[in-house]
Amino acid sequence: MQEWLKTAVFYEIYPQSFKDSNGDGIGDFNGIADKLDYIADLGCNAIWMNPCFDSPFKDAGYDVRDYRKVASRYGTIEDLQRLIEQVHARGMHILLDLVSGHTSEEHEWFRMSGQKEPNEYSDRYIWTDSWFQRAEGFPYIAGERERDGAYIINFFKCQPALNYGFLEPKEHWQKPIDHPACLATRAAVVDVMCYWLSMGCDGFRVDMADSLVKNDDEVKSGTCLVWKDMFAKVHEKYPDAVFVSEWNNPASAIGMAGFQMDFFLDWTGNGYNLLMRDYDLSGRDDSYFKVSSPRSICDFLEDYLPKYEAIKDKGLYCLITGNHDMVRAAYNLDERELKLAYSFLLTMPGAPFIYYGDEIGMRYQDLTGKEGGYTRTGSRTPMQWDDSLNHGFSDADPSCLYLPSDCASGAPTVESQRRREDSLYHTVKELLRIRRKERALAAHDNLEILFADRNRRSFAFRRGNMIMLCNPSGSAETLPVDAAGSKQIYAVGTGKSEGAGYVMDAQSFVICRK
Ligand code: NOJ
What we know:
There is one protein chain. By secondary structure, this protein is α/β, with parallel strands linked by helices. It folds into three domains: 3-99 and 264-439, TIM Barrel, CATH 3.20.20.80; 102-161, Oligo-1,6-glucosidase, domain 2 (Alpha-Beta Complex); 446-513, Immunoglobulin-like, CATH 2.60.40. It has helices at 29-34, 36-42, 77-89, 108-113, 180-198, 221-237, 250-257, 271-276, 298-311, 335-345, 414-419, 424-437, 439-442; strands spanning 10-13, 46-49, 53-54, 66-70, 93-99, 140-141, 151-152, 203-207, 242-245, 261-263, 316-318, 353-355, 447-451, 459-463, 466-471, 477-479, 487-492, 495-498, 501-504, 508-513. The strands form five sheets. Strands 11-10-9-8-5-2-1-12 form an eight-stranded parallel sheet, with helices on one face. Helix 6 (221-237) packs across helix 7 (250-257), helix 7 (250-257) packs parallel to helix 9 and helix 10 packs parallel to helix 12 (424-437). The longest helix is centred in the middle third of the chain and has 19 residues, at 180-198. It is globular and about 80 Å long. The structure holds 1-deoxynojirimycin (NOJ). 1-deoxynojirimycin binds next to loops.
């Protein structure tokens, strides 16, 4: 694993909404460059930026029309190069977003692929042999192109799936993964990666990384083979390139495919969701960090631990505060609950990812969908910097913003959070300072659960010489954890060592150094 990853803390930027430098109402590369000092000062040393390539934006840029062009709304390629240089000048790193499973239906490859006359791109996408032959088991579209056939899509209608083949082809139109056309798809995507690595980016977050090979088996052995091959080719030229997968199965992604990092994602009912997002419309909220929740940490650990154990010496299973696809954490958690949740996320193994604005508790907005965002749109609103026009995001008339800024009373801003000493922002900053300073927190294979009980709300874990204790409930709990002789270096709420136990007051989180 690349050395810098061991101490990496990522900041995710949705470029549309971070900082608008030219007053057109939408964020851009120069705006991000202006705010790099803010990101560094917060304590993040790496960036993941959502797609910034030429696109009709029917899925916020996850529908790429030209992989080698930047979207003009974010600036020029020179602006992006300058941004990358400025990131590096601060000793930071930046990952771009690679959409490898599909393109936009407006991509030139797809235009060619849909032509009646066979050509170089005919099999770049997955077509059946005639328009009335259904691609059974897959979402498919017919009736759009002159070619007689139906094609498989990967996500929305506008995103035809690239052809990496089928693990076990069953129909004539299904190609094996080593078919020349599928190898050509791989080569084309390798070219795209090398192109941006040659521009200086440090690697990629890979969209739907598990979606490449169709009819793949449970562990996705076909998709893993394809990634291994593509990584080998990329690493020949760029040995330091790093990749984080949107996969949520580190045994496959890290263990077999060769990614360095995988995300723990918000899948219904899984361990990650149980931490912060286990609620429904009836008002029930059983998220672990909700004060009123009955949940024990064991539900999270049952899902997390086996996945972590499987790859802990090979790569990073990464915890996130949220992302552009999730409802913001501040939707259901108040500031105290967020402080506890972040204390946990930022002291666990893996490289943590902070979604822009989560560090100040930006709120979820109830908005009409934009660019295919639907319910995700409310988590993609402009960053709130200060109390000036549009919270300092843009000089544009408010009616011209990409999305409206949160102008309801109490909207948090960086400025207001900086002013208040006990704010969420200062908590995040302090946690990241501690994470930087304490070597044990940077390691990735040293997690040891000290106390977790199905019938209790509190729990404790150790990483080397650091002990973390947490009680998210509304009443004090004593944990059978002997931390005598250790020094408390951080606390939300209060806790103290008492005999062979540790008394944790309501809603508290403590870090001790042995
Ligand atoms: C996952 C991305 O995070 C999401 O925003 C996008 O809509 C889909 N993949 C399709 O690319």
